[in-house]
Each structure stands twice: as structure tokens, then as C-alpha cells.
Amino acid sequence: MRRNTRSLWPDARGAVLPLALFLVLVLVGLLYYVLGVGDAILHRRVMQDGADAGAFAASVIAAKGMNLHALLNVVMAVTAGILLVIRSVEVLLEIVLAILEALAASVVLAPKALPLIAALTPAESTVESIGDAVEQFVRVAHSALNVAHHTVQHGYPLLSEARAVDAMAFQSAYDPPVVAGFVLPVLGAQLPDGGRGLPVEKDDAGVLCDRAANGLGNRLRNVSSGVPRWLLRFLGGVVEKALRLGKRRTCDDDVVKPPRAVIHARRDGTRVWLGHEEFQYRAYDIGEDPREGSWQTGEVGVRVAQGGGQAGRNGIYRAQILGRLGLAQSEYYFDGTEHRAEWLWKQRWRGRLRRFRIRRDWLPSGILGACAGARGRGAVGGLSGICDVVRDFSINGISSH
Are 281 and 355 in contact (CB under 8 A)? Predict the structure, then answer.
């Protein structure tokens, strides 16, 4: 009988199966890890978009508030200008009557001056009556406009907050993963005279009359007609000087309320210009727990890739909640090259995002020193993990807008 020679050789059938099973497990873990990282990146991207939307919405609302201040200033100037014109005519008539009365004292000029006095006296009385009625209207109107200024200054920051929260937490584009959010002025918009609100303050009431006089004079100088240009410039100057005659009765008697201007300095005397923190907002949005809801792939994927279990769920892991925080910064600014005196007289305020970076002086010096001392020494009681959290938080802040 012939012996089976195959039994003399090693049987290698199925030897590659353990290796294939191991590679399949590695590939499955790698696939879960890729899915988890991709889900985490998408989570962070949507979180950042939500923070950007909230910050930009806040700056846009604040810019609208500044434009509304400018509109209220213009309305105040127009109403003050109407009263200024009437009072200026009244002053001119009084001057003319005074001259005529002086001429009437002369025997030679009395026959010509007396009829003019008789004709102008009723006109002066009528203009004075009209001026008194308009003055009462201006008093009421400016009181209402002053209240409107106050309401806009202190109400629009609240409206910015509400609009930002709506953009971050209640828009379907960012929910999920955003579950909450808020926005704050960088310096709290604390005003030099106390309180909080848009960075504006009361200006001099005489600015209204000056702008009305200059505006009417410039309008007359630039009229397109067949009248010689030199004559128009002369008449414009005369009108401007005449309007200034009525300024004392219009602006110096507490008839009108002061307009608003952008604050010039902080409480400590520091000058304020565009780009300072007074014109900036910072938005924060908070994401849902990645272990819950529709964003759990990142958590599950990383855990599967690490072999499951509770490994790594220590204090350092729980500190990674900072990854659920989105940051963004924005500002509102005057889109023009005019002097700051014009910033609240033209509706050119706009909003935009700004690059946000975590400065070194924001982090406690003790943490920075400890992290620097731990370099190259391995893990020191979990200190390296804390340093990683600080580093990751800084990187997230630098990469945001």
C-alpha cells in the first residue's frame, strides 16, 4: 500500500486567516477613527460658522444703531435749522427797525422812515409769534429725539445680543450642534459718564445751529443759476452770518437738545479711535455633547479606534469640553475718511468680522511657567495633559475669526 506523502509536509492551510482578521480589525478601527475625526472637524466647522454668524449679526445691529444716531442728529439739526431761520429773520427785522427808529429822529429822514416802521412793525410781530409757536414744537420734538437717542444707545446692545443668540442657536444651519450662545462687547461698552451702551456721548448743542447755518450757506453758494458766482458766494456768506445772529435765541437758551458724538476718550483719558475695543463684539457658542445626539460619531469612532473602555476619561479628558466652545470677534466701523466730527452725521456705519487671537497675557502666568518647565521632562502628574488643553484652546482661538 502506498503511503500518503502529503502528511510529511507541514499543513499551512488557514495560516493567513489570523493575519487577515487582524488587518480587518485594524482597518475597521482606522475607518472609525477617520469617521470620528471627520465628524469632529465638521462639528468644529459648524460651531465656528455659528460663532461667526453671531458675532457678525451683533456688529451689524450695532452699526444700524450708530446709523440711527446719525439720522436722529440730522433730524435734530433740520428742526433746529427751521427755528434758527425764523429767529434770524426776527433779529434782522429788529435791527432794521432799530435803524429806522434812529433815522426817524432826524427831521430830514423822518417822513421816509416812519412809513417803513409802520409797515415792518406788524411783520416783526408776526414773525415773533411764528417763532414762538415753532419753538414750542422744537422743544417737544427735541425732547422726544433726546429720548430716542437714549433708547437707541442703551437698547441696541440688547438687540445685538438677541440677534446674535438667534443667529447662533435658533437657526437650522447651526443647530445642531450649537445649543446655546451669547455675545458680549469686548470692554462692556462702559461709557465715560457711567452706564453701558453704544460708544456715543452728548455733544455741544451749538453744533446743531452751526451745521444748519453752514448747510444753508453752502446750499446758496452752490445754486446752479445765471447769477454770477461771486454774488452767490457773497449772498451765501450774508445768509450764514444772518443765521448766526439767531443762534443765541435758538441754541443758547436751552431750546434744543444736544446731538450725539462718538466718545473721545475713556475714563482714564485714553483716546478712542475706530478699531478699539469699544467698537468690537465677541461671540461665544456652545455645542452639544459629542456623546449625544447626531454628533456622537466622533466620540464613538475615537473610542472604537482606542479599543473602547473608559481609557482617557480623566480630568484632562473632561477638560476637553473647551472643544465645544466656538469663538468669533467682529466690529462696527465708519466706512469713510472724514474727520471723527462727521462720524455721527453720515449713515456709513458697517459691520465686519475680525481675526481673533488669544494673546499670551490672557493666560495665567503660572500655567505658562509650569508648562514651560514641564517640557522635556515627561508627564508630571497630569501637567502635560493640562498643557495640551491650553495649547489646543489657543490653537482653536487662533484659527477662529
Answer: no
Q: How far is CA 250 from the centre of its chain?
A: 35
C-alpha angle 381-385-391 in degrees, rounded to nearest 5: 140
Q: Which residue has the cell 449713515?
A: 347
Whole-angstrom distance, CA of residue 375 vs CA of residue 387: 10
- Residues 32-55: pLDDT tens digits? 777 767 777 777 788 888 899 999
Burial status of residue 119 (CB atoms within 10 A of its CB: 0-12, 13-18, 19 or more): exposed
Supply φ then ψ for residue 376, to 5 degrees.
Answer: 80, 5
Note the pTM of the prediction, 2 decimals: 0.73
Residues 6+ apart with CB under 8 A from 312: 306
Instruction: Find residue 185's DSSP bridge partners.
Output: 281
Q: How far apart are CA 77 and CA 210, in angstroms?
A: 9
User: Following DSSP, what letter does each residue of 286-303 receive, concatenated?
Assistant: EEPPTTSGGG-HHHHHHH
- The mean pLDDT value for 126-144 works out to 90
- Any residues with CB less than 8 A from the CB of 275 and at least 6 apart, and which? 331, 333
Residues 6+ apart with CB under 8 A from 156: 61, 62, 64, 65, 68, 197, 198
**Contact present, 86 and 130 (Cβ < 8 Å):** yes
Question: Where along the chain do its domains lie?
Answer: 23-356, 357-401
Q: How far apart are CA 86 and CA 96, in angstroms?
A: 15
E-assigned strand segments in 235-385: 260-262, 280-287, 325-334, 349-354
Which triple of cell numbers denotes residue 69?
444716531
Q: Which of 144-158, 189-203, 374-388 has the highest mean pLDDT?
A: 144-158
Tens digits of residue pLDDT in 222-266: 555 565 666 656 655 666 666 666 666 677 657 888 899 998 887
Q: How confident is the model at residue 65 (pLDDT cuts 50, 70, 90)?
A: very high
Grid cell, residue 336, equals 469713510
